[in-house]
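Can't attach files on this board, so I'm pasting raw text. These are the components:
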Amino acid sequence: MYGPLQRFNKGGQPRAELDLEDNLTVRDLLVNLGMDMDEPWNAALDGTLAAPSDRLSDGSLLLVFPPIEGG
Amino acid sequence: MVKGLANKILRVDLSNGRVWTEEQNELFYRRYLGGAGILGYYLLKELMPRADPLSPGNILVFAPGPITGTTMPGGSRLCVGAKSPLSGGIAKCEAGGFFGYELKRAGFDALVVQGKAEHPVYLWVRNGEVEIKDASNLWGQTVLETQDAIEAELGEKRVRTATIGLAGENLAAISCIMTDLRYAAARGGLGAVMGSKNLKCIAVKGKTIPQAADPEKFRDMARWMNTNYMNLGNAATFHELGTGAGMVSGNAIGNLPVRNWSDGQFDDAAMIQADALRDSYRIDMKACPGCQIRCKKVVELENDSYRVDRRSGGPEYETLAAFGSFMGINDLAAICRANELCGIYSLDTISLGGTIAFAMECFEKGILTREDTGGIDLRFGNADALLKVIELIAHREGIGDILADGSRKAAQRIGRGAEEFSMQVKGVEFGMHEPRLKQGLGLIYSVAPNGADHMTGAHDTLFTQEGRGMEAVRSLDSLDPLPANDLSTAKVDRVKNLHLTKNFTDSLVTCLFVPWTLRQQVEMLRALTGWDYTDFEAMRQGERVANMARVFNLREGLTAADDQLPKRFFSSTPRGALKGTAIDAEAMKRATRTFYTLMGWDPITGVPTQEKLEELGISWAVAEAGTSTASRIGRAES
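---
Top answer:
Structure tokens for the assembled complex are below.
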């Protein structure tokens, strides 16, 4: 997890390996982590832009970060 | 007299040395506000149609906004514009720092410069007084050297400046104007316009504090933002890292541009990210007046080859990407040095990045050879080549002379199929955000009057799912999350209305990184001026600015054929997150026509209807535009 969103990750760390129940969606996971879902975020699941309803699978890599604009 | 404004516009004709002030009435300010509104007005009203952008006839406008010069967070900026030597249409950009703030406090809502001085000069504007001073001894000096020399000559400290370096003097169409050494009015070649007028620098000092109609409300708003910014938008990230925190994540979703848009993956993204900079060469963060976000990086370094002076600031996201992934370079020290070179020579880092990446691709394809480059191995990834070519461009020597006017003109001069690799719209290279990912932004890249501009477009990934990001568009009656690659009418409507709000913001001139809502910007304008200003007027203002720019471009000879993305975006990247994803050419064509229609323009030609211009109170612009534009608007009407 990147930037200020890192505070929601397990232990407040940038990276964490998690054992998860089957069939969780991206949204489920973030809710389980206690993330404020009002906070603007994007996620990449295994290398592509993810929708909240995308399902995680064994070995999935999820990056969560603030949306990028301007600059 | 409008509260909060200076109520004076400073005019300078360098051809005859005449200086005068203009007083416009209250309705003028209510109709055009400031910034981009005042720019559009003067370009249409006073620039002779089809004037050469580098002739004395071009008009260079420095326009703060109503909010500029106050202590409102995000209220230090100004809009700078002219007819662009890069596109032949409008050049409009916004710059931060203290220059705009000081110009307003010196007693002016705008400075309009015309003509050409016989020899190099600079303007000294101090508390309502103006002098045209000799700058012969400054010509050829860097932006940093010029600052030191002017402060020494004037015997003043903290003089705020807008300055050009060698690239502006040498009329490079990718040159910019540097404000306060490390901020830039970057896009469209404004440095060359200033250079063509023999105007080296504008130095400003002012002490008149704008007085709001409702000072208590105004102060409360500033206090509220200073208390709450860390919980709003991306301000917390900007505060900690500045821009450029999203290289790795951008690479992961396909937003990060790679090797002149030819690739979709940059394995060294972490090496050019803002946290890598924080942990290496960043020594400080600086703020514009009144702002606690402090997003401006300051770097300092010294190695065997060069040192980077802290006064030049540090690279922003656009620069980190343009000199990094876009050229396949992972050497952060070299990127910092390249950023400094652009600052001291006054070069737009985006167009320069786009142009050199174009040349690198031409070199790799054998279109350019070592013979053309003077022996430079101009391959992707060669940081040393980047630094050498910047020097050549600023001095207009060798291959640098060909590249100094941007990739479109360079491709025309090079020939041999180089045009295919010139990635620009209207001659203006792209901001560093992938239109194959953010396709609504892709639409704005193609239709924006000032070329492939990333600042007045919707960044689609902000609005793909529920959450606070959606609030900004819900207030525009765009209610549902939409995929980033969607180009439906609902998306075009969202994109259009966000484009209009940003044109309003550029008239007020507030900073897009200070997370004011549209409603709050209207509230601050009400508190400042005492007007019963409404959200409706704000949207109208955005529409007026967009239409003035459109009419200006039509008048200067641009057409709907110039609203085109390069072909490359209609096929996918060979690898990375966007492998298999391209823009559908037919869908983009439909979206463009829908955009024209929703704007009240002819759906095929993109020409505003007479009724639309009358509705916006700018039908005078057609008369000013001359017969050919008038007849085209007449045709669109029928």
